[in-house]
């Protein structure tokens, strides 16, 4: 056993080709990311409202969040001093550049950025290193969902910055949280957008993944470097991992499976929501971010739209948020869940969340994913 190859991203070498996907708000912080890094995978802390526990969060969310980036990184490093730890920073975040810069200065090994294309990410990481007077070591990875989006970002970085990504994350239609597809695209891929449908056109999407691998290789060849590609979305078992590797990817990004671990930063109620969920409880919903997102249909989601919504307080989370038309405040809904009030909150999850039957340790999950148990 132990036959899977390590994941190599430049000078970063992860023993297991498994990245734990970033999960906001408050789901993947230092405890989960540190534990994953300690077992030889790559741990990712989500910066989405990362400072929600800070006393000044409501008054000064940006400051609270930036402070928490440093704190969470420090705690994760204490758990896994030799491990690989990075941040997931959503492009749609208000003050995105400040988050990127803080993550670099906090010593992130890697920044993974999706929910939009991270057009200016190379510039922000370089500026941060210059400002801090440090040699830039943070690797950068865009999240893409199609050959088209991979091409756009590779072309842009090539033309504007004369560089290529260090890693590419391909997020497919079975992922949790916000999805990089329109409802129309999801339907074309055979995903039933009202209920989860695991019979989606996997063969079609596998071809898309192969197309992305070919495209990324062209840019790798141009810059004389190996750019690893990892896939995400619905990867839950060792068989799922083997299937992805058979497509030619270098590793996987897994989120949902890590939620029901002892070490996950989510409150017990959030983990229980996964354990209790049935397949038909997992739905695609339209989030105020303007993208479809996958979540558990709980009392909160059932009630959305039933009473007119009035925003009481803005937490400054998104670059673009139409306060007049949103059906609810996404920060409030996610913080409710992160604080254990899941019935009043949005519970994001991947399409396979219903498979959880109880809590596991991160080590058990990792061993199962890589086939070492
Ligand atoms: C609870 C939850 C929160 C998430 N939050 C984020 C996030 O803040 N930013 C992001 O880019 N992706 C987010 N994701 C997506 C994951 O990082 C990951 O790519 C995806 O869920 C992988 O599919 P899986 O959950 O089926 O393993 C989230 C996923 C879940 C389940």
Overall 3D shape: globular
Figure out the total of helices. 13
Rounded average pLDDT: 94
Strand content: 5-15%
Backbone CA Rg: 19 Å
The helical percent reads 25-40%
User: Any idea what the CATH architecture of the largest domain is?
Assistant: Alpha-Beta Barrel
Number of domains in the coordinates? 2
Highlighted features:
373 residues, alpha/beta, TIM Barrel, 2 domains, eight-stranded parallel beta sheet, three-stranded antiparallel beta sheet, 13 helices, 14% strand, binds flavin mononucleotide, dioxygenase activity, Aldolase_TIM, Probable nitronate monooxygenase, FMN
Write the layout of secondary structure elements.
Blueprint: E1 7-9, E2 12-14, E3 18-20, H1 30-38, E4 42-46, H2 61-79, E5 84-88, H3 96-105, E6 110-113, H4 121-132, E7 139-144, H5 147-161, E8 168-171, E9 177-178, H6 183-188, H7 202-222, E10 229-232, H8 238-246, E11 251-254, H9 256-259, H10 268-276, E12 282-286, E13 292-296, H11 299-303, H12 330-338, H13 362-370
Parallel strand pairs: 3-11, 4-5, 5-6, 6-7, 7-8, 8-10, 10-11
Antiparallel strand pairs: 1-2, 9-13, 12-13
The structure holds flavin mononucleotide.
């Amino acid at each position: 056993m132990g036959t899977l190859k390590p994941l190599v991203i430049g000078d970063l070498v992860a023993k297991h080709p498994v990245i734990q996907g970033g999960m906001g708000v408050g789901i993947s912080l230092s405890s989960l990311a540190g534990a994953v890094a300690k077992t030889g995978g790559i741990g990712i802390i989500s910066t989405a409202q990362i400072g929600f526990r800070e006393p000044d969060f409501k008054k000064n969310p940006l400051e609270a969040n930036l402070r928490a980036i440093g704190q969470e990184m420090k705690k994760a490093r204490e758990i896994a001093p030799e491990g690989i730890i990075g941040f997931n920073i959503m492009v749609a975040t208000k003050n995105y550049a400040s988050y990127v810069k803080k993550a670099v200065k906090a010593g992130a090994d890697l920044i993974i950025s999706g929910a939009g294309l991270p057009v200016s990410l190379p510039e922000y990481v370089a500026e941060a290193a210059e400002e801090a007077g440090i040699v830039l070591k943070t690797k950068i990875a865009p999240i893409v969902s199609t050959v088209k989006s991979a091409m756009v970002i590779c072309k842009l970085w090539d033309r504007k910055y004369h560089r290529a990504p260090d890693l590419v994350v391909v997020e497919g239609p079975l992922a949790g949280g916000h999805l990089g597809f329109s409802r129309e695209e999801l339907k074309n891929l055979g995903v039933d957008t009202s209920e989860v449908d695991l019979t989606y056109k996997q063969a079609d999407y596998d071809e898309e993944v192969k197309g992305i691998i070919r495209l990324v290789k062209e840019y790798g060849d141009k810059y004389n470097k190996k750019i690893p590609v990892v896939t995400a979305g619905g990867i839950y078992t060792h068989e799922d991992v083997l299937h992805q590797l058979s497509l030619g990817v270098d590793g996987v990004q897994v989120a949902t499976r890590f939620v029901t671990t002892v070490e996950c930063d989510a409150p017990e109620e959030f983990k229980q929501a996964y354990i209790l969920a049935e397949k038909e409880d997992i739905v695609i919903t339209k989030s105020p971010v303007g993208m479809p997102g996958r979540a558990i249909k709980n009392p909160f989601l059932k009630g959305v739209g039933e009473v007119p919504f009035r925003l009481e307080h803005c937490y400054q989370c998104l670059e673009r948020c139409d306060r007049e038309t949103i059906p609810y405040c996404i920060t409030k809904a996610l913080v409710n869940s992160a604080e254990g009030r899941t019935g009043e909150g949005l519970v994001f999850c991947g399409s396979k969340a219903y498979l959880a039957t109880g809590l596991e340790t991160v080590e058990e999950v990792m061993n199962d994913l890589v086939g070492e148990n």
